[in-house]
Design brief:
The complex is a heterotetramer, with two copies of chain A (273 residues) and two copies of chain B (295 residues). By secondary structure, chain A is an alpha/beta fold. Chain A is built from five helices and 16 strands. In chain A, helix 3 packs parallel to helix 4. The mean pLDDT of chain A is 96. The chains are: A alpha/beta (273), B alpha/beta (295). Chains in contact: A-B, A-D, B-C, C-D. The structure holds flavin-adenine dinucleotide (2 copies), flavin mononucleotide (2 copies) and FE2/S2 (inorganic) cluster (2 copies).
């Protein structure tokens, strides 16, 4: 595939400085100045590690770098400004979330293959939640810049997380606890949207149960979907064979080189981890 | 700092550990820069088996204190797939090629070795003898007698350099190395991963890995690797490829000091894809700085 | 959460690893508080040998990524010194006493075991079989046949519970455990430290430790310990004392989940002298919170 | 020995807050508020570790706590204010030196046995250098408070380290590079002092070669000396048997429980590490 949405990464890891850190409810957004890397495609990711004290957290971790979807990217100064959206869920994200402006990160990327355009006159429908909001933000930027509509549906746990919705334009929000927007699942909103107009490609990213619900809904309605999945990764560039996801046709695929964005039709189910 | 190894001349002493760098996939991620700045002085393939294998069910990875447990399960296209589709691509790398193979019987190994012996692209063979014996459940490589018996069958099948990758899960790695040398191995490499268990981080009593147990690599095992490499290098005359937790030029120098001729880098490449280049440069700097008195 | 172990009743499942807590020295540092808040449910002595030993020349310690290499060399006052001066003091501890012994021959072990069998202060014996066989250089405990032969001589010399502390530096720890059980051991304990080498941090090619090699302990080896404990617990019916890198109640719970009856804490006591108390409390909290579904 | 200078430690490690951090040339002085511990004796030490991110430094270390002599101690507020003097020489001291006011430390101590009084009408003569200045400071405080004279001789590498001398009153200074005070070794000064009045007990702490020179000098002149030694420690309370020092009479002694202050006469030589 020569025209798959994959921008090649410079070989090796490089060290960049954090230029901005801001909090958005429970989330942290880090911006870095990447002077050596290219503009990434929406849906691609980077492997990140703090340049200092990557280790010594709970259970003497982290040790390996962690994968993060690019939230936003633009040319800035001599290079590219990259943004990432983080939630502290363990020793790696905790360390990254405590970093401040001026601290340095090791980054490798952009990696993997991102979102492809809807085509065939279909509209894009963005659906996600939690930190899965990140790849949808850069994708919405690109769609809007092309003049394409890019309605977004986002689900969050509660009021502490709902501010994540500010990262997209005009997102319809659902919260599990009803504190913001629709009280319930984001797939309720997706079903409504597809009821109204099913000639769409759904672009989704979020926790596995949400992605599985999206996949099942799209399958049931014969709607195309592209899912940006997660899995545990050690390397991010196909070296370790650790990040595999089982395919409907049998066998496995390495999410870091053949994903993280997959055609939902290739999966029998979105794996739980 | 070029190095002679089993009749090959390598640009520096740093190679990759089998199964820890997929040059074909890396080229998809990094493009031609990967080939132009190839980080290793020789490329070691992941373990190839006679038949294709899908590998173990996920999860396959578990992070430990300064280490990684993997239960990848040796996914590969099988001998045919390797010869037909991988080898031509790997031959485009600017470095010698070492193909790592594993078989559960001497016959399987002989078939693999003969097929690879036929191919000019392959400069050397590495035998992964951490395969469990179907009868005892123990690694073939754990028993020096069994290891020697297998090697005596395999050795005559190829004139290419034959490296035996020893298993570290044994009482006496020196005896295994000695047996390998006596049976005609041209070199030994070690250490492979240590048998390890990864508990589920959230659920009591449940294994995390799809395959329940796996192998531990990374800095956590470096001191064990140094002890085994030292033991083996003191025991055999053939060259030793030392590996286990090497992250820096200083670590590589330590491996050389205890008797290794080459140093392989595995897990550190996951943290830094160009680790091989960095480490070989750091090693150069150490030699430049202090002559023989490495930093 | 009291536990039955070989006929003893312990207040909780946390004990110390042999050689990692000197109750007599700790009392000099902490006074009676040490006795009043004794962190372990039983006290395991360091390894006692027939004759006094001074131990290895320093340096004896080397810090590794999330681990520690020690080459202490089993310094102790010898059997007589232990019986005469240590045992009366240790008897004042508020917990059962397990005495760990090592001998390089079956005769030595028999002498040690008989002498301790005579003493009421001693509640159980632990045999450290990581002693190298003078002939092969390998640990006695590494060869199941040799281990069983030694145990068959020692077992009849005492009616007290006999725990065999297995060596982890072996191809098949399950077979060693099985041999111990068959030869009459009441329990097995594992893992002891992994053989490791500590390079001098500043000088090329020079070992750091006075004794060149040592044993690796701490979080770095926890995953290896869990694999071996799991393997052994699946193999034998006698109780298992699990250890290796335990730092928290969650780690202790993982050891229990893979089949241990007791959990020993070693290196973590160096970081936190009252680690035993903390870990047993954390374990209690886990059980309280989730019943059988440990955190 | 019931009247040895040893204050018992509360059992277990406790967590204290850093109340002050200041730099003194190449050294860092940390003060902590120890609300649970007693006043230590001069020459005793504590095992310290950062409560956060103790690990993840160079070579994925530190892991074990590190030993530090108490520099100064006094009752303050509800507890005791302890000061430590640090030099960053590796991953452990680097981490401790980067801590700031408000950060927390794990501490165990006071540990070991400290300095005993000169007695027999002899005067105290303090001699040391580098971070070995620390135990001499608290010892000088105590001697001066008792109205005893406590002249001090201190050696430092260079101008960056010489400010360490400010921790003692009226110290005579020697520097290796001659940038401050006497150009040469502190033992030159010690020889001068002993020439003038040899009826003294020398209290010394410093790098092994300096301590060995002090020991040899005192031995040659039949002057009593007390040496505060260092050795690699894992536990600090006699548990690991790792910190041993060979004795003149043969055998070893654990520096953490039988030292760190030893009568120089017990040593044939001060070990190099
Ligand atoms: C392509 C991709 C894109 C991503 N994008 C984002 C993003 O934009 N923003 C974001 O916040 N996150 C993102 N993630 C997820 C992020 O990578 C993880 O949250 C992060 O790796 C967690 O690391 P941690 O150390 O904080 O937590 P961990 O302790 O690693 O825990 C995270 C999960 O890993 C598992 N786990 C627990 N312990 C271990 C262990 N010892 N070894 C292995 N697994 C363990 C458990 O399932 C746990 O819930 C992305 C992941 C991928 C693969
Ligand atoms: C009783 C006592 C009191 C002390 N008081 C003070 C004080 O007041 N102020 C002060 O600054 N320091 C003091 N020290 C010294 C201090 O404890 C050490 O400087 C500190 O432990 C160094 O730790 P690190 O991680 O920074 O360096 P390390 O990396 O531990 O290096 C320090 C030294 O340890 C050795 N070493 C190197 N690598 C290793 C390894 N992997 N494992 C084991 N050893 C290694 C080398 O000899 C090296 O020079 C005292 C020590 C003792 C025993
Ligand atoms: C993810 C992973 C996969 C591996 N696959 C193989 C393999 O296919 N064949 C093999 O001989 N060794 C394999 N190994 C072992 C490594 O080659 C190496 O011996 C070991 O990881 C120790 O080196 P390190 O600590 O530098 O990683 C693998 C290791 C890892 C971490
Ligand atoms: C400093 C030190 C001394 C030890 N001494 C002994 C000993 O005398 N006898 C013994 O059987 N095990 C000894 N061990 C091994 C421990 O009891 C334990 O098996 C090992 O350290 C693993 O546990 P840990 O990781 O919790 O430390 C020692 C370990 C250390 C670190
Ligand atoms: S993360 Fe290593 S192969 Fe995908
Ligand atoms: S430091 Fe452990 S015994 Fe002294």
């Amino acid at each position: 595939m020569t025209d798959e949405p994959r921008t090649l990464a410079p070989f090796g890891r490089r060290t960049v400085a954090i230029t901005e850190r801001r909090e958005l409810g429970a989330y942290v957004v880090l911006a870095v100045a990447d002077t050596e890397g290219p503009l990434p495609r929406a849906g691609q990711f980077y492997m990140l590690a703090a340049a200092q004290r990557w280790g010594g957290g709970s259970d003497e971790r982290p040790f390996l770098p962690r994968a993060f979807s690019v939230l936003r990217a633009r040319e800035a100064g001599a290079g590219v400004r990259l943004e990432f959206m983080l939630e502290a869920v363990g020793p790696g994200t905790e360390r990254l979330c405590e970093l401040a402006q001026g601290d340095r990160l090791h980054i490798t990327g952009p990696l993997g293959v991102g979102f492809d355009r809807p085509g065939d006159g279909r509209r894009a429908l963005l659906c996600g939640g939690g930190v899965g909001t990140a790849p949808l933000a850069i994708w919405q930027d690109e769609l809007l810049a092309r003049g394409a509509p890019a309605p977004a549906l986002l689900g969050f746990r509660d009021a502490a997380h709902a501010p994540g919705a500010e990262l997209l334009h005009n997102a319809r929000v659902a919260t599990d606890d009803g504190s913001h927007g629709h009280h319930g699942l984001v797939t309720d909103l997706l079903a409504e949207e597809l009821d109204a107009d099913a000639n769409a490609v759904v672009y989704a990213c979020g926790p596995p149960p949400m992605l599985e619900a999206v996949r099942a809904l799209c399958e049931a309605r014969g709607v195309a979907c592209r899912l940006a999945l997660e899995s545990g990764m050690a390397c991010g560039f196909g070296a370790c064979f650790g990040c595999v996801v089982p395919l409907r046709e049998g066998g496995y695929l390495r999410l870091c080189v053949d994903g993280p964005v997959l055609d939902g039709a290739r999966l029998a189910e979105v794996p739980a981890h | 700092m070029s190095v002679a190894f089993c009749g090959l001349r390598l640009a520096h002493p740093i190679v990759n550990g089998s199964g820890t760098f997929d040059a074909i996939a890396a080229r998809r991620a990094f493009g031609d820069a990967l080939v132009e700045h190839f980080p290793f002085a020789a490329f070691v393939s992941k373990t190839i088996t006679l038949e294709p294998r899908q590998g173990n069910p996920p999860p396959r990875l578990y992070e430990t204190p300064a280490g990684l447990i993997n239960s990848i399960g040796l996914p590969n296209k099988g001998l045919r797939g390797y010869l037909d589709s991988d080898l031509p691509e790997l031959a485009r790398l600017p470095v010698p090629l070492i193909t790592n193979v594993m078989g559960s019987t001497a016959e399987e190994l002989c078939t693999l070795v003969e097929a690879l012996d036929d191919r000019d692209e392959v400069d050397a063979l590495e035998l992964n003898v951490s395969c469990p014996n179907v009868r005892t459940g123990l690694d073939i490589g754990a028993d020096p007698v069994e290891l020697a018996a297998v090697l005596r069958e395999v050795r005559p099948r190829t004139g290419k350099p034959l490296i035996v990758k020893l298993t570290p899960n044994t009482a006496d790695v020196g005896a295994a190395a000695q047996a390998a040398q006596d049976a005609g191995a041209d070199a030994v490499s070690l250490i492979n991963t240590l048998r390890a268990y990864a508990p589920h981080p959230e659920r009591a009593g449940v294994p995390w890995l799809g395959n329940a147990t796996g192998g531990l690599s990374g800095p956590a095992i470096r001191a064990v690797a140094l002890a085994q490499v030292r033991e083996v290098a003191g025991r055999v005359a053939i060259p030793v490829v030392g590996m286990g937790g090497v992250q820096t030029g200083v670590h590589a120098a330590r491996m050389l000091e205890v008797g290794a001729t080459l140093v392989a880098v595995g897990t550190e490449s996951f943290r830094d894809p160009a680790a091989g280049t960095r480490i070989s440069r750091e090693l150069d700097d150490l030699f430049a700085k202090s002559g023989d008195n490495i930093g």
